[in-house]
Amino acid sequence: MRYLMLLAFLFAAPSAGLGQTADEIVAANIKASGGEASMARIENFTTKARVTIESPLFGKLEGTLEAIHAPGHGYYEHAVLGPVDQTKGWDGSTGWEHGPNGPRTLEGFELDVMKIQSYLNPFVAQRALAPPGLRFDRLDDAQVGGRPHYVITVKTTNGPTATMFIDRDTKLVSRSTMTVSIPSVGEVTIVTDTGHYKAVAGVMMWTTMTQVAEGISTTNVTIDDTLVNTTVDAKIFAAR
């Protein structure tokens, strides 16, 4: 009888192993980030940052990066890194870039990244953009920087799978990883760590980022200023 009672208790009790679903963790992240209502009030935001890039291919570059984000509508980025002056953008349909090698059209993964960067939160971005086959799945928890994290994969039909690490305490994203195919290089794993979040207009935004492209480069970004809902001429997003 004791064993039957124990079995009944185990089946009736919630499973600690199952815990929260992927969608519940994503919802908690969006709420901790300020909530969709607060994000919806931000029509655009501009970030100004310092950047350092180190690479075995071209050495070390230092400079500045200014980006203008209009969630779902446009993205503009201007980087000045020593001798390198590069501008890129997305006007809601077309992605483009002007750099040391001249103008080019951005497509595929590069275009998708700019679409997501236009938003304040990557999960809000994915849901709004609704790529075919979008699905969030939960993996086993992991440690990042000695802290326990939820681990969520973001899968689509055509794009690479992203793995997102969400701090169990703060519910904010600390790390994301993705393996992408780069022409003339092959498959490269990219690890992006974000931190030092601060509230801007009611929304939590990271202010430091380290991105490691395996065997290619390490990029460090420190955001010094963020401006919200300024006057932005939509022409800045258009291809030059």
pLDDT < 50 runs, ≥5 residues: 1-17
Shape descriptor reads: globular
Level-2 CATH architecture? Clam
Rg from C-alpha positions? Answer: 20 Å
Order of helices and strands: HHHEEEEEEHHEEEEEEEEE
| Name of the CATH homologous superfamily | Lipoprotein localisation LolA/LolB/LppX
The span between the termini is: 78 Å
What is the top-level CATH class?
Mainly Beta
Rounded average pLDDT: 91
CATH topology: outer membrane lipoprotein receptor (LolB), chain A
Characteristic key phrases:
240 residues, alpha+beta, outer membrane lipoprotein receptor (LolB), chain A, two-stranded antiparallel sheet, 5 helices
SSE layout:
Elements (H helix, E strand, L loop, with lengths): L1 H11 L9 H11 L3 H5 L4 E11 L3 E12 L3 E8 L2 E7 L4 E5 L2 E5 L1 H10 L4 H8 L5 E10 L2 E9 L6 E6 L5 E10 L3 E10 L2 E3 L2 E3 L2 E6 L3 E12 L12
Antiparallel strand pairs: 1-2, 1-15, 2-3, 3-4, 4-5, 5-6, 7-8, 8-9, 9-10, 10-11, 11-14, 12-13, 14-15
Short description:
Helix content is 19%, strand content 49%. With 240 residues, the protein is of the alpha+beta class.
Give a verbal description of the structure.
The protein has 240 residues and is of the alpha+beta class. The protein has one domain (20-229): Clam (outer membrane lipoprotein receptor (LolB), chain A). 19% of the residues lie in helices and 49% in strands. It contains 5 helices and 15 strands. The strands form 2 sheets. Strands 6-5-4-3-2-1-15-14-11-10-9-8-7 form a 13-stranded antiparallel sheet. It has a two-stranded antiparallel ribbon with strand order 12-13. A hairpin with a 4-residue loop joins strand 4 and strand 5 (95-99). The longest helix is centred in the first third of the chain and has 11 residues, at 2-12. Residues 1-17 have low confidence and may be disordered.
